[in-house]
Amino acid sequence: MNLPLQDLRILSLEQYGAGPFGSVHLADLGAEIIKIEDPRFGGDVGRHTPPYAEDGDSLFFEAFNRNKRSIVLDLGNPQGRAVFERLVKVSDAVYSNLRGDVPAKMRIRYDDLKHLNPKIVCCSLSGYGMTGPRSKQPGYDYMLQGLAGWMAVTGEPDGPPTKSGLSMVDYSGGIVAALSMVSAIHAARRDGVGMDCDVSLYDTAIGMLTYLATWHLNEGFEPRRTHHSAHPSLVPFQNFPTADSWVVIGCAKQKFWERFVGVLGSPAWALEERFAIPASRYEHSAECVKLIEDELARKTTAEWLPLLEAAGVPCAPINTIPQALREEHTLARGLIVETEHPRFGTVRQVASPVRAGTPRAEHVRAPRMGEHTETLLAELLGTGTDEFAELTRAGAFGVEEQ
């Protein structure tokens, strides 16, 4: 089938989570992602991430690397570097997720490669970017969620600063990198000139502060953790305990509030002036939420949800991850895909949410380290058996253990 990005070729010096998460969406859309793995260090560190890891295969790695190809190259070796430069000539982009100062050291920025291919795009996704006082520091999702203020607004008010249960800075940073790279490739094809994309997890995390940052910068608003993950301005819009578990209810509009109190049986307090309009409910949020909690505690989540849904009130149960993966809507949207793996058998994993036309019908497992080295170089560079053997002897693909 024709896929939207099947005419893109990206050389990727990626590893672990953020980088591969960004490119897996492009791979699902048809882009040719060529993972360049360093044989000196066992390739992508995600290959060895426990649990469910053995001999360079891991289910962690599978989750981030389907539909890609892998070659091994030692870029510190002159012959390995030469092969890399030949690949740059026939590619659209070089993508990496390394510390901010490393692309310069490895000579993989636009100024380092433009003589080989004037249209090459060089996208770096790092912890803190290529400039600034933290550019030489390693940056990970946990650090960024703390540094950018996310932990300060996550969790209960009387609890400790809390990380999101998912690595949302990593994943968001990967998507920002993918968007930056595709945009740059579009411009390079239009103008004939490539460029650098200096993307960072830090920039992503700060950028996602959005309206909380705007409120603070202009009005001095101090964002804080809220009771049961309540929205900072909309009431009610938060988690509520029921008789047996939890439910999320969000009255983002006045009509939803009116429908909601109808489901509650229109208790007398709901008609009081202090709860009549959004601004009044915000001013009296603690009292309003307490009264709602008392009402919702009278029934189970399974009893409340049909009533709320029938009335058109925005709501959802608070699922566990296993429950979320079993949701009817998850299956209906085709969000579980399968690949076949020689070690793990049929591997089921979540699909990319990026949609452009008809989604890819079939997926290919993540590659073994260096699985495509010989065939891919023959295909793209015309290397024959003799040349490949000579490159191997020269250490282009690492030094074989004796």
Automatic annotation (TrEMBL):
Question: This protein's superkingdom?
Answer: Bacteria
Q: What is its EC number?
A: 2.8.3.-
The coiled-coil regions, if any, are none
Record key words, sorted: Transferase
- GO MF term set: transferase activity
> What PANTHER family is this protein classified in?
SUCCINATE--HYDROXYMETHYLGLUTARATE COA-TRANSFERASE
Q: What is this protein called?
A: CoA transferase
Q: Which organism is it from?
A: Amycolatopsis nalaikhensis
